[in-house]
Design goal:
This protein is α+β, with helices and mostly antiparallel strands. Helix 2 crosses helix 4. The protein has a domain of 47 residues: Winged helix-like DNA-binding domain superfamily/Winged helix DNA-binding domain (Arc Repressor Mutant, subunit A). The chain contains four helices and five strands. A three-stranded antiparallel β-sheet has the order 3-5-4. A two-stranded antiparallel sheet has the order 1-2. Helices cover 46% and strands 15% of the residues.
Length: 91
């Protein structure tokens, strides 16, 4: 399986590791909503994948997948240096 690196952490691309594989669909949805809510409640939040993983207690592959999903859904955006922040945030 293809591996990648992000901030020195090894992970499998999100397309190869759906959250449902890690747990139930409800757990995946709950995690997605929790992270989305945190960014919405604190619009200035700017996190890298490793920071988000530590903050939300996720593995690197799950964290990258959740953040990528939130980007794909138009909730978050990614800066050139790999930081995730709320799309509507001016930061």
């Amino acid at each position: 399986m293809a591996d990648g690196r992000l901030d020195g952490i090894r992970f499998r691309p999100a397309a190869l590791t759906p959250l449902a594989v890690r747990g139930s669909h409800d757990e995946a949805r709950s995690l997605n909503l929790r992270i989305r809510s945190e960014f919405e409640e604190m619009p200035g939040t700017s996190l890298t994948v490793p920071q988000a993983c530590r903050l939300f207690g996720m593995t690197a592959d799950v964290g990258a997948g959740v953040l990528r999903t939130l980007v794909d859904d138009g909730v978050l955006r990614v800066t050139r240096d790999g930081r995730y922040l709320l799309r509507s945030s001016a930061a």
